[in-house]
Amino acid sequence: MRITTRGQLAVSAMTDLALRQKMRPVALSTISSRQGTSLSYLEQLFSALRRAGLVDSTRGPGGGYTLARRADQVSVAEIILAVENLKADELQNLGPSQAAQVKSMTGELWSTFNLRVMEYLQSVTLQDLVAQQLEKGVALEEAAPAAAAKSRITPKPRPLMARVGVPNSVFALGSMPLLQRR
Hints:
Elements: H1 5-20, H2 28-35, H3 39-51, E1 55-58, E2 64-67, H4 76-83, H5 96-123, H6 126-136, H7 144-151, H8 170-175, H9 178-181
Antiparallel strand pairs: 1-2
């Protein structure tokens, strides 16, 4: 079994999602900024996770992703299998005679190894990973929005002055005589 960066990023992003989905769907852009991962790459991962039934998506303003099931019902193995292109036979790059020789000599070893790794990954749930992150003291609320709110420049209100001869709406403009509009 080979777990690539793709699988590792998917597990990390799903853990992030599980930590922060309590109030509302989580936007991929926020996960992207926290994880330091490309947004387009996360979109690919979450598309695969959605097809596997692990996440639900909500469109529109305030949209994003939520877990399709509770975190204690999602195993790390499910996440990895959803995004990795794992094949049962990892000997695909070898020639037919080499693959047969490896299978006869150590096939049982690698089959057992893969089985044990998969059993372990199935025993670890997303809830376990969330609990680990909370024990480490991961902050669930971002400080950035508060700082951004303080630093926002608020536009100065315009004084309400009535200008003589200037229409205050499109409708008023249409009712003006043609010579006066020029």
